[in-house]
Design goal:
Oligomer: single chain
Largest sheet: 3 strands, antiparallel
Structural class: alpha+beta
Distance between the termini: 50 Å
Order of helices and strands: EEEHHHH
């Protein structure tokens, strides 16, 4: 059994059994990541036992994970490279974006003002 701290990644229907207790045909499977990077899927009851959180807290963490995932999707869909790939960026915007990347090539994050949503 995995021990330590956990983070809720979300829920989906990729699996329908609990990797902790083996229960099958679950209607809801919670995906957890341990502090050591191990990922497991389990029912809400086992997730509650593993994390030592109430089921209400598990449900809150699931909502937070879904909101975080949606925010990440929105962020990446608005990223200049994605917009350029889709063909939704004007050539002048793309040139400005690449120029800004080249000027800031030593930075870990690029902050490009005026290229997308201005």
């Amino acid at each position: 059994m995995i021990s330590g701290a956990y983070r809720v990644l979300g829920t989906n229907e990729d699996e329908t059994f609990c990797s902790v207790c083996g229960k099958k045909d679950l209607s809801r499977v919670v995906w957890l990541e341990s502090d050591r990077g191990e990922i497991l899927h389990c029912g809400v009851n086992c997730a509650s036992k593993l994390t030592k959180w109430s089921q209400a807290k598990i449900n809150g963490q699931i909502k937070n994970a879904i909101n975080d995932n949606n925010a990440n999707i929105r962020y990446w869909n608005s990223h200049p490279m994605v917009i350029a790939e889709r063909g939704d960026m004007k050539e002048s915007e793309f040139v400005a974006f690449i120029t800004a990347l080249l000027r800031n090539e030593n930075q870990n994050e690029f902050v490009i003002k005026g290229v997308v949503n201005g």
